[in-house]
UniProtKB/TrEMBL annotation:
The protein, known as: Fasciclin domain-containing protein
Lineage summary: Bacteria, Pseudomonadati, Bacteroidota, Chitinophagia, Chitinophagales
PANTHER family assigned to the protein according to its UniProt record, in alphabetical order: FI19380P1, PERIOSTIN-RELATED
Keyword Signal: yes
PROSITE patterns: FAS1, PROKAR_LIPOPROTEIN
Residues in the signal sequence: 1-26
Length: 313
């Protein structure tokens, strides 16, 4: 009996020693493992992010992008800054607050992998403005800007490298339209239709905006708008508005999209980019693709505007 107890105690002692040794080795292994880089670390160690790093440092955001959490950063690399006309001299001359306003427009307070980017939706940034994300057969986009390298992992989130800098919008769709005399007929039609609030309020609208010349190309003048009933004008205006964000990158040939006019669906063309009421015999309205951000992909606080060369009828 005494021999049996001695053997049992010996086995227990060996087992406890093994557990302790394994635990100690595991702790040592964990201590020796390099910590996953934070978002700030990734930016700081990649020479293609040197301008982004300079902007982040001057804006005082390095610590925020290194803090524990779950963030998504749409990160412009040096090529993207160059495409936006932003260089080191611009960063040196900008105030920290101005840089922070731009940079925080690139950050979402949740981890969103590229596979989880919605087909079309708005997302609020840390700068408290909406960015408009989309995913389709053409790729992943934010405000119509392509993601060229997705899902760069960090300990506190994920980075998607983008091909241009996102500039925070300052005007609503209504503000953009009323700010140009070229849209005076469109504005009068929107007012008559009672849709000013719809394109002024928060949202994620897409407006295909005909200029005065575009109305006239279809034989529609200010006098025509004045003579039409409110219901007729409302129908015309409504079929120029889609209730979600659709950038040029989201246009899929022969795709269709419902409009604010329940009776009208738009059919999309891509060569050239165009829209027309599905089933209409009227000429398609081409999107004016002269200048990104000026004639198409004009980002507003509540959606996007594309100028078209003919009113949609």
């Amino acid at each position: 009996m005494k021999k049996f107890m001695t053997s049992r105690l010996l086995l227990i002692a060996v087992a406890l020693f093994s557990v302790f040794t394994f635990s100690a080795c595991s702790d040592d292994d964990d201590d020796n493992q390099p910590a996953d880089p934070t978002i700030t670390d990734v930016v700081a160690t990649n020479p293609n992010f040197s301008l982004l790093l300079a902007a982040v440092s001057k804006a005082g955001l390095a610590d925020e992008l290194a803090a524990p959490g779950n963030l998504t950063v749409f990160a412009p690399d040096n090529e993207a800054f160059a495409a936006a006309g932003i260089n080191q001299a611009f960063i040196n001359s900008a105030t920290p607050q101005a840089l922070a306003d731009i940079l925080l427009y690139h950050v979402v307070g949740a981890r969103v992998g590229s596979a989880n980017v919605p087909a079309s939706d708005s997302v609020r940034t840390l700068g408290q403005k909406l960015i408009f994300a989309s995913r389709n057969a053409n790729g992943v986009f934010v405000n119509g800007v392509s993601v060229k390298n997705a899902d760069v992992a960090a300990s506190n989130g994920v980075i998607h490298v983008i091909s241009n800098v996102l500039i925070p919008p300052t005007q609503t769709i209504a503000g953009i339209a009323t700010g140009s005399s070229d849209f005076s007929i469109l504005v009068s039609a929107v007012v008559k239709a009672g849709l000013v609030d719809a394109i002024s309020n928060p949202g994620k609208y897409t407006v295909f905006a005909p200029t005065n010349a575009a109305f006239q190309a279809a034989g529609v003048t200010q006098a025509t708008i004045d003579a039409l009933s409110v219901a007729e004008v409302t129908a015309i205006v409504g079929q120029h508005v889609i209730g979600t964000n659709v950038y040029a990158s989201d246009l899929i040939n022969n795709g269709t999209a419902p409009t604010l006019n329940p009776a009208a669906t738009l059919t999309i063309g891509t060569n050239p980019p165009s829209v027309k009421v599905t089933g209409s015999s009227s000429t398609a309205s081409n999107v004016v693709t002269t200048t990104p951000g000026a004639t198409f992909n004009i980002t507003a606080t509540n959606g996007v505007v594309h100028v078209i060369d003919r009113v949609i009828l």
